[in-house]
């Protein structure tokens, strides 16, 4: 008898829990505590993960969070499909699901029903895909108030195509190029579906919808200028890329009601004597280092603040 | 994926750190096929080789020429264009450069060799030339640094 009462109590507790969770889901959806704040969703790029936003000490996220009326939410993470093209179910469509759900939560709690998206690299293309989707008869583009892209290859990046031959040549050329350094970035798969799709004029890129009219897009890009010592001369070579993405490809923004537009972040690189090659992260306008660049971070903060004031 | 494609994929996966990916990408357009790379700072000790006499002579002749087009032919293509677009001389007029071919070290496609420039005032300036092989197999200058 005593045993039966234990079971009954346990069942009652479980039912209470289920009921509570169900009520919570009905009220808040996927963002039960967003209230009237505007969710800020971060989207990483090719072969990355949400750790690009979280692992590095950065004043950007607290600064965004400090803007009145915003809430930085758990970043969108598609690490397991990070080498695939943005049409993959785990990327673009999943991002559309997440945005729609968050906007719904916002609406239910009396908020604007809008999401701010901050995307790095291919994350911006995933966002373009997601914004063209509909969920429950509702356009996802109606759920987004602002997009900020950092180094997004809107018109493609030919990095893989341009470097494949040389890369193979170097790896086959013997030490020192085949040494341990070669293995360090082995995760970047040049045959990945995303790499193929990222090529300029690829059919996949051509099929990707553009930015919807009416959403401000702030597009930030890096541009490295190299300087080479040649005897008494110093020769300057504008690269017009951030190592991976052409500057022009990343500068695809649009202004809506005074918010959005484009900005280029340049940096200079004095080529040091070989073989003491530079550490890539020392360049503040390099593709990934842009995320740690204080000027870029401040631009993101200022853009969000500006949007929140409209 | 067939075995050839798999082999290629494996090779490619090994690649990018070596700077094909990163250091190379810093290079100017048109120079991408010439830059070596080692962005992780791996110290390289290059094996001694013999510099082809024809390469040493060609480089000396180009660098000692008064013709900027001729001088530019000693540089990797991406730098040659940039050099021509600027107004700085590589060496003062009248300077004579001699490549010390026996100091040549290389691990293709990257090499380096010492050079001595006798300036018009008789002083000698020493340089280390960093070279890469172009598509035609000729050594070309990527950059230089002062040497002792």
Give me the secondary-structure topology.
The complex is a heterodimer of chains A (310) and B (148).
Chain A (H helix, E strand, L loop, with lengths): L1 H27 L9 E6 L7 H4 L5 H7 L3 E3 L19 H17 L6 E6 L1 H10 L2 E2 L2 E2 L4 E7 L8 H14 L7 H5 L8 H6 L4 H5 L9 E14 L2 E6 L8 H4 L4 E2 L2 E12 L23 H15 L2
Chain B lengths: L2 H13 L7 H4 L26 H12 L3 H5 L4 H9 L10 E12 L2 E9 L5 E10 L5 E8 L2
Number of helices of chain A: 11
Helix content of chain B: 25-40%
Q: Biggest β-sheet of chain A, characterized?
A: 8 strands, mixed
Q: Characterize the biggest β-sheet of chain B.
A: 4 strands, antiparallel
Tell how many strands the DSSP assignment of chain A holds.
10
| Secondary-structure class of chain A | alpha/beta
The average pLDDT score of chain B comes to 73
Basic shape of chain B: globular
Please give the share of residues in helix of chain A: 25-40%
Number of helices of chain B: 5
